[in-house]
């Protein structure tokens, strides 16, 4: 049977992650309190951030920025803001 968690991001019971995807205390908090659905939402935002801001994951400052944005998005209900980004127009 799938493991469920009360997702802090979505505010509902939902299937949890299969294993801890992020290291340390933050990773443990994500594993215990964030659903697969919310994690997928974050992954989409993360990809946008990396691409639009040209982040280098080898740079500790860029990783710190990404972690700050992740915690804000998953636990503080903050939206990821990408300066100058506009979603594609719907046809």
UniProtKB/TrEMBL annotation:
One of its GO terms (biological process) is cellular response to oxidative stress. GO terms for cellular component: cytosol. It holds the Pfam family Iron_traffic. Keywords: Iron. The keyword DNA repair does not apply. GO terms for molecular function: iron ion binding. PANTHER family: FE(2+)-TRAFFICKING PROTEIN-RELATED. Could be a mediator in iron transactions between iron acquisition and iron-requiring processes, such as synthesis and/or repair of Fe-S clusters in biosynthetic enzymes. Necessary to maintain high levels of aconitase under oxidative stress. Belongs to the Fe(2+)-trafficking protein family. This is Probable Fe(2+)-trafficking protein.
């Amino acid at each position: 049977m799938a493991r469920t968690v009360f997702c802090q991001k979505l505010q509902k019971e939902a299937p949890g992650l299969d294993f801890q995807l992020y290291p340390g205390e933050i990773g443990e908090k994500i594993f215990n309190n964030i659903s697969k659905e919310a994690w997928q939402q974050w992954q989409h935002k993360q990809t946008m951030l990396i691409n639009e801001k040209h982040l280098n994951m080898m740079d500790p400052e860029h990783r710190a920025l990404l972690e700050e944005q992740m915690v804000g998005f998953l636990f503080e209900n903050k939206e990821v803001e990408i300066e100058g980004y506009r979603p594609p127009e719907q046809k």
